[in-house]
């Protein structure tokens, strides 16, 4: 983004004045609002007439690229999952109907390099937010972003709500903690607290460090003559990939149910990293095998081989189904990177 574009970008609204009493309009608090899922969820809730309050960490620079088009409609407040007081203040002041916890240290490879920090954000951060709700506004309905990485070395395929967890990374372990502390607060305090066990979901807003975006970005660069090679780790790893815009709809549906319950969300179709490469290169008329090289540096210390969702409960009870296919998702991401780099 150029400095000229940054200057034109609207500044986020700050919560500097007391909020006026609400009428019938619902209010939602979203942590991680500047991330992929947070941006799509904010769009969804604004479209449904919600007042949306986005929680961001106080940093020396802003990172509102994904929600720049929403800043005139989203109220931005500063708080941190590492700081109990700031979270309690946000919940006390907002008195939200719904709270979506999408903030985390969410990149699996980084969790080996920063396992303690990952635990602080991705595990204990959930407890701090639940405590804030319990103390300041226990009527709020809470959504926790759980992950298919909790299944890790899966003991059965496909994975469903009753499949035992076997995490294979500090990130997966932290997500298991966050999942079970959410269950614990639900059962201990009668709070409406649920977890969505979401399988891999991607979009053009995905960070460049994630394999799907790494592939789409490399394909665009190679097609445009800006690169000649794509280096990846294990090509046989299988994942259930869907579109993030579809998955945030499932999050919202979970908080509209009469009783709090956890749900697995996924497409029920698995593709390998090799399939991902083939589809992405095929979209631009290239043979992936001429450009992709396996690099041991990108292999995880403990690999997760196969993740495949059984989302039959979500389909039956939430009425949720994915709308974007794997091929459509890959083409969408490649086209977005072609446009960005052209």
Structure notes:
This protein has two domains: 23-203 and 242-268 and 309-323, NAD(P)-binding Rossmann-like Domain (Rossmann fold, 3-Layer(aba) Sandwich); 211-237 and 270-307 and 329-341, UDP-galactose 4-epimerase, domain 1 (Alpha-Beta Complex), CATH 3.90.25.10. The chain is α/β, with parallel strands linked by helices. The protein starts with a helix and ends with a helix. The strands form four sheets. Strands 1-4-3-2-5-6-7-12 form an eight-stranded parallel beta sheet, sandwiched between helices. Strands 8-11 form a two-stranded parallel sheet. Helix 7 (211-223) packs parallel to helix 9 (273-283), helix 7 (211-223) packs across helix 11 and helix 9 packs across helix 11 (326-341). The chain has helices at residues 3-8, 36-47, 84-94, 108-113, 115-136, 170-189, 211-223, 244-254, 273-283, 312-318, 326-341, and strands at residues 13-14, 27-31, 51-56, 74-78, 98-101, 141-147, 193-198, 201-202, 230-232, 238-239, 242-243, 263-265, 271-272, 292-294.
Fold topology:
Elements lengths: L2 H6 L4 E2 L12 E5 L4 H12 L3 E6 L17 E5 L5 H11 L3 E4 L6 H6 L1 H22 L4 E7 L22 H20 L3 E6 L2 E2 L8 H13 L6 E3 L5 E2 L2 E2 H11 L8 E3 L5 E2 H11 L8 E3 L17 H7 L7 H16 L1
Parallel strand pairs: 1-4, 2-3, 2-5, 3-4, 5-6, 6-7, 7-12, 8-11, 9-14
Antiparallel strand pairs: 10-13
Q: Say what oligomer this is.
A: single chain
Distance between the termini: 14 Å
Secondary structure: helix percent: 25-40%
- DSSP summary, beta strand count: 14
* Order of H and E elements: HEEHEEHEHHEHEEHEEEHEEHEHH
3D shape: globular
- At the third CATH level, what is the topology name of the largest domain? Rossmann fold
> Number of helix segments?
11
CATH class category label of the largest domain: Alpha Beta
Low-confidence stretches: none
In this structure, how is the largest beta sheet organized?
8 strands, parallel
Task: Please name the fourth-level CATH homologous superfamily of the largest domain.
Answer: NAD(P)-binding Rossmann-like Domain
Q: How many discrete domains? A: 2
Judged by helices, strands and strand pairing, the structural class is alpha/beta
Q: How large is the share of residues in beta strands?
A: 15-25%
Radius of gyration: 20 Å
The assigned CATH architecture of the largest domain is: 3-Layer(aba) Sandwich
Average predicted confidence as pLDDT: 91
Order of strands in the sheet with most strands: 1-4-3-2-5-6-7-12
């Amino acid at each position: 983004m150029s400095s000229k574009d940054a200057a034109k970008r609207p500044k986020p609204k700050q919560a500097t004045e007391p909020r006026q009493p609400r009428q019938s309009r619902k209010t939602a608090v979203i942590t991680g609002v500047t991330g992929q899922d947070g941006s799509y969820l904010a769009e969804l809730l604004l479209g449904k007439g919600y007042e949306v309050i986005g929680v961001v960490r106080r940093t020396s620079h802003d990172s509102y690229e994904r929600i720049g088009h929403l800043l005139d409609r989203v109220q931005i407040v500063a708080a941190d999952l590492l700081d109990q007081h700031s979270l309690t203040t946000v919940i006390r002041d907002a008195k939200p109907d719904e709270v979506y916890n999408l903030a985390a240290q969410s990149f699996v490879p980084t969790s080996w390099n920063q396992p303690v920090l990952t635990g602080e954000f991705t595990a204990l951060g959930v407890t701090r937010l639940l405590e804030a709700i319990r103390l300041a506004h226990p009527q709020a309905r809470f959504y926790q972003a759980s992950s298919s990485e909790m299944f890790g070395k899966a003991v059965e395929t496909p994975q469903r709500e009753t499949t035992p967890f076997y995490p294979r990374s500090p990130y997966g372990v932290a997500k298991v903690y966050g999942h079970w502390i959410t269950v614990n607060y639900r059962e201990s305090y009668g709070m409406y607290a649920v977890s969505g066990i979401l399988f891999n979901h991607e979009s053009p807003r995905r960070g460049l460090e994630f394999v799907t975006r790494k592939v789409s970005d490399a394909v665009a660069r190679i097609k445009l003559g800006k690169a000649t090679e794509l280096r990846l780790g294990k090509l046989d790893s299988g994942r259930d990939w869907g579109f993030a815009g579809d998955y945030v709809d499932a999050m919202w549906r979970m908080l509209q149910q009469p009783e709090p319950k956890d749900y697995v969300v996924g497409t029920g179709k698995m593709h390998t990293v090799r399939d991902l490469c083939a589809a992405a290169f095929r979209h631009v008329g290239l043979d992936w095998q001429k450009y992709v090289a396996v690099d041991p540096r990108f292999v995880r210390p403990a690999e997760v081989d196969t993740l495949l969702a059984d989302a039959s409960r979500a389909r039956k009870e939430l009425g949720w189904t994915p709308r974007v296919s794997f091929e459509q998702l890959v083409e969408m991401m490649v086209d977005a990177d072609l446009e960005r780099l052209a």
